[in-house]
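Journal club prep — side note

Before the paper discussion, L.F. wants everyone to see what a predicted structure for a comparable chain looks like in token form. Sequence:
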Amino acid sequence: MSMRPILVRGGRVVDPSQGLDTVMDVLLADGRVARLGEGLDAPEGAEILDAGGKIVTPGLIDVHVHLREPGEEHKETIASGARAAAAGGFTAICAMPNTDPPIDDPAAVGFVRAAGERAGAARVYPVGALSKGRKGEQLSEIGELVDAGAVAVTDDGSPIMDSGLMRLALEYSQTFGIPVADHPEDLGLSRDGAMNEGLVSTRLGLPGKPNASEDVHIIRDILLAGLTGGHIHIQHVSTGYGVGAIRSAKARGIQVTAEASPHHLILTDEAVEGYRTEAKMNPPLRSAEDRDAVRKGLADGTLDTIATDHAPHHYDEKEAAFDDAPNGIVGLETCVGLMFTHVVGEGLIDIPTLVERMSLAPARAFHLPGGTLAQDSAADVTIIDPELSWQVDPESFLSLSRNTPFGGWELKGRAVATIVGGRMVWTLQD
């Protein structure tokens, strides 16, 4: 049975893949972008969306999301995470493999794919574990993981301490044209650190993680990417030195891509004051100087993707003492509002650059379909109201978890409709 066409009428179409930033119509039919232009006629039976005053973009893509299934479904399921993503304007997300059991074999990859398809919301792309059991000792069967649908490999959350193993991964992954993603952290330096090492940690009497624990791994990963010719994707960069090292590596032609996370673009370690566990994450919130360097890195393209590192945790777990509470915050449903308010709204980047960092660049980094509204491309579309003011209410999240430091924040700009494969999967009225 054919799908009902959708005519998105009169929106500001921002598509960096085509250099488009103009008011026009977009016609979606049979799951594809059928036409772009002014004054398009609506086919018989088409659904007409009035996008006047709104921004129409290629579907947003988040390459760093934790869905907790299998093993911790009380925090998030693949279905709930895919719905939360759609509510945040994302049409595709990459699911990290640090589940229980980990996503380290073809059956597990297939499970994530199938559950994502059943959810019928944002597309879910599995990321396979780099090492068997995420133990950092033996390389996973990367070819089998890719054949089953994995789009990248990483031991995310468990940094690869064995440089020889990381070298092997970067060499072997080239056969399959996938990036190797890394959580850059030297565990010998970060050890039992609970937050950024600095004045705030000293004042609070909390053990700290020095910048060097991240910087050492970023430098190592860059060196290994240069040695092997492989593609390293550095996750959630939080330090000024790390940004500078990535900038220099790119200038030397090393194949490196890197993420900026909303919380590292906006918050500093002062958010932990009062022992607020909702501001506990890894890498930790850093100094104002580091935050400003991350912002500059996003602006100049050193950090080419925005990724939420959506990390759901149950309420009870975050209620623990600060040292004992788990790291991470949810981010899918707040990202667009935070970026429009505190990144675009503060003049750091313009809207076309934001769209590029949230659609085209992540699609390119992970070799995913999408990131474009070119004719005949998949009809993945995000519609954003840049003027819509709203307050973050964690109780209204579609995610199963509520752990955010942004509760109660007043934001301006929000996704109001999400279309995946030509099908409306979420609207603000839902």
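L.F.'s comment for the group: Residues 6-56+377-427 form a domain with the Urease, subunit C; domain 1 fold (CATH 2.30.40.10). Keep this in mind when we get to the figures.
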